[in-house]
Design brief:
Blueprint: H1 7-20, E1 23-27, H2 33-42, E2 46-48, H3 56-60, E3 65-69, H4 75-91, E4 95-98, H5 106-116, E5 122-126, H6 127-135, H7 153-163, E6 166-170, E7 174-177, E8 182-185, H8 198-212, H9 216-235, H10 241-254
Parallel strand pairs: 1-2, 1-3, 3-4, 4-5, 5-6
Antiparallel strand pairs: 6-7, 7-8
Bound molecules: adenosine-5'-diphosphate, 4-methyl-5-hydroxyethylthiazole phosphate and magnesium ion (MG).
Length: about 270
């Protein structure tokens, strides 16, 4: 475990999340809106799925964190993304980028590069998306990863160094790095990647935890630890991804800050 981030810090961050119930503005894709909102609610945060260019900036002035996800993007949405990210950067609140399937199309690559100019506090992606960002080449199978998170640690660190963002690579083990400190969060359930949009929901939860944590690095570790712990608990009763999904929401809602002491950080 990194000396900079301990389980005590994670427990404290979950306490803060429960106490502060931060308002998290999510500009996220059609697939993920429901699950991301419910994951935030279960984790005691307050979601608002507000993306239109006529109101995205105004909402970002009220929010404690902004989440931008390019999963089902189109030009009017991209305008709203820029407006919200720019207000977040101006106000000094964390904003989190999820570059869904960034290796798949030129439009996704161009949009992601343009959004990166607003300097996200955190980039949360799967391993193939990190490879695509680090190498500027296509990688992955659409929205799904074909790489292991622990095989791309150096690329994640290089991306964190180049962007100034904390980088989270999700997978069987989640890698969280600011390029100087790297923390690996183990746990979860192997059926979690079969729940569509759980990665997007993880990104939303990173936004919620980053809103209350002293640093984006700690917020990102805490969010991934919450999901790993809840996923593992939910997996004990689930019969497949269908029953894992509601069980995961229930486990997140029932999660006490002290439960995070079970999570393995290295
Ligand atoms: N093999 C696995 N075992 C346990 N947890 C996993 C596994 N793969 C992914 N997860 C968890 O599932 C969630 C979604 O991650 P992932 O599937 O990598 O994102 P995405 O949907 O963006 O590809 C994260 O909380 C991650 O830790
Ligand atoms: C299937 C799909 N297609 C466009 S966005 C999306 C959801 C992807 O969600 P996740 O990356 O969390 O699996
Ligand atoms: Mg994803």
């Amino acid at each position: 475990m990194s000396a900079d981030i301990s389980v005590d810090h994670v427990v404290d961050t979950v306490h803060r999340l429960h106490e502060q119930t931060p308002l998290v503005q999510c500009i996220t894709n059609y697939v993920s809106m429901d699950l991301a909102a419910n994951v935030l609610n279960a984790a005691h945060a307050s979601p608002a799925m507000v993306h239109d260019e006529r109101e995205a900036a105004e909402m970002a002035r009220l929010a404690s964190a902004v989440v931008v996800n390019i999963g089902t993007l189109s030009p009017p949405w991209v305008t709203g993304m820029h407006e919200a990210a720019s207000v977040a950067a101006e106000r000094g609140i964390p904003w989190v980028l999820d570059p869904v399937a960034v290796g798949a199309t030129a439009y996704r690559r161009e949009t992601t590069n343009a959004l990166l100019t607003h300097r996200p506090a955190v980039i949360r992606a799967n391993a193939s998306e990190i490879v695509a960002l680090a190498t500027a080449q296509g990688a992955g199978r659409g929205v799904d990863s074909t790489h292991d998170s622990t095989a791309v640690v150096e690329q994640a660190q290089a991306l964190a160094s180049a962007t100034g963002s904390v980088v989270v690579v999700s997978g069987a083990s989640d890698v969280v790095t600011d390029s100087v400190t790297t923390v690996i969060v183990d746990g979860g359930d192997p059926r979690m990647p079969l729940i569509s949009a759980l990665g997007c929901a993880a990104t939303a939860l990173v936004g919620g935890a980053a809103a209350v944590a002293p640093t984006p690095l700690l917020g990102a570790v805490a969010a991934m630890a919450m999901l790993a712990n809840a996923g593992e608990r939910a997996g004990r009763s689930a019969q497949g991804p269908g029953t894992l999904r509601p069980a995961l929401l229930d486990a997140l809602w029932a999660q006490r800050p002290e439960d995070l002491r079970d999570v393995v950080l290295r």
